[in-house]
Structure formats: C-alpha cells, structure tokens
Prior knowledge:
With 345 residues, the protein is of the alpha/beta class.
Amino acid sequence: xPQVLAAQTHPMLPHRSQEFERIxxxxxxxxxxxFGTQAPVFIATSSGTGLQEAAVRNLAKNNVLCLVNGAxxxxxxEVAKSNGxxxxxxxxxxxxxxxxxxxxxxxxxxxxxxxxxxxxxTSTGVENPVQEIAAVARAVSPDTLICVxxxxxxxxxxxxxxxxxxxxxxxxxxxxxxxxxxxxxxxxSDRALEFARSVPNRGWxxxxxRMFEHLVKDSTPATPxxxxxxxxxxxxxxxxxxxxxxxxxRHSRMATLVQEWVPxxxxxxxxxxxxxxxxxxxxxxxxxxxxxxxxxxxxxxxxIANGYGRLKEKTFRIAHMGETQxxxxxxxxxxxxxxxxxxxx
Length: 345
C-alpha cells in the first residue's frame, strides 16, 4: 500500500526514546489477534529464518523432530542440525501434508524437546493440519514444545495459537502482512519462555529471554529497523480495519478463483484437502518457460513465482495473499489464459 510505503519516511527516533517504545509496544499488541494469542509478540529485525534459528537455540537442549514436506520445513531441519541439535526429520512426500498419526507414532518411540512444523509450505502449496498435529503431540508427549512457521499464512488464514496450545508461532513481514521485507514476528508461550531460561548457550541476538526482558522494559535488545516498524504499525491498522474475518474470507475467495482455474489447464501439485489459502503450486505439465511467461506478465505489471528449489520449472506458484484483491487475480488469470492460448513449446 502507498500508505505503508510512506510510513517508512517518518523521521528516525532514538530507539530508546519513549516515543519509539510506544510505537513498538503498540505494534506488538496489535499483532496478537493475528496469532490468536495473549502471549507477547516479539518483532525482530531479520527474515523468518532468523526466528527458525531462535526456536531451535532457545527451545531445545538436544532432541528436535522436524516435520519435513517441502523446502522451508527442510531448511528448518538444516537450521537445527547446524546449531548442533540431535535433529531428526519425519519425511513426507512433497505435495502431501504431514499425517498427525505419524507424528504421534514418532513421539511414542522417543522423547523430543521440540517439534517444528511449517503451517503453509510455500514451496509446495500445502497447508499442514497444525491443529491436529498439536493435539496428538499434546496427548502423547505433553512436555514437547511445538513451534510453527506461519511465514506465508499468518494474516491470510486463521491461526489460534492459544486454543491450539502452540508454543511459538513465527512469521515474516512481507507475505500476508504485506509489509516490506526485513522484519520477523513471533508469539511465544509462557511455558516456552520458562523452558528457554533453562537452556544454556541460547546465543545473544535471538535470545528469547533477553528479548522478553526488553519487551516488557522498553523495546529490543539491539537497534531495530525503525522505518519498517513504522510501516508495520500502519499496516496493522489497515489489517484490523479490514477485519480479520473479512481478510480471511478474501484470501479464501482468491484461492477459490485460482483453484477453479488450475484444472482447465494443468494439475495441482498439492494434494486435495490440504491446499493453501495463500499460494497455489501448479504442476508445469505444459512445459512453460516461467522466465518467458513472466516477461509477458511484466508488461501487465504482474508476476508469478517459479517453482522453488528442486521444483524449479517443474511447478509455478500463484500467490493470492496480502494486498492482492479478487480483481487482481481475475486479471492475472485472463492474462495466463491469453499466454497459454498462443504458447508453442
């Protein structure tokens, strides 16, 4: 939004000033309804991956179970291993959702400090059943902490952190929140913070305990990205003015438009029943050259995403999130029809 971009031009403030502290605290409080929580929300100057690292550094002493069914859940597994954790992956075919029963079975065999799961796998267009996964984890292993990456879903679909009994939910500013990139947000439960206090070697920059101590006292341990927080504060007002239920319904309608279009030309990559409300992954059965397609779309001020990682050129992805409106999606689909009608492999 032009309003959000303009908010970044406000004059800089000392980040220890009361004026900035009020803005920071206000933005965190306005974020809570998006997470479905009363827990504190941290605003960090990083990408979402930074808070993936915070989760494994703070909320595990040793054993981590990573639920892997796409590139970003796989990344979280790599983050856990690179931080010295005894990390194990529960592998699921890309394009399919994690089966809660498999999680229950894994927890019956071994005790884990932490489970990591990506709610909305941006690489595959799969939405994992986080509520059901959390329920079986609580039933089988009530002391295991549950951390959720909601980078591409928070603000586009309902997440109820408190009701689902999640311990940490993280997101980034640039997806459904439609803010410039560079911020990551996380809500953290009381029991997760209590566990973190017992963990040695949490690091410094992403120490959740240190972040909490500053959150209740002033703002952040280190200098934050003030201009991005100005923009976030403005955008949260716009999101809440739209109304969360209205926003979720708009995302659902946009997803339906795309999902009705896909079978006319291609096939879904994600399995039925677990398709994302915010991004649709399409199998590239037509053999489209995505770079050429995007050159065509760019003339209409549009763009779609190639497949991610090992799925590059094998899929393409259509985002329906953030500030995108139904009319934008309709125009995109018309343009795609036009391109496909004249495409010669």
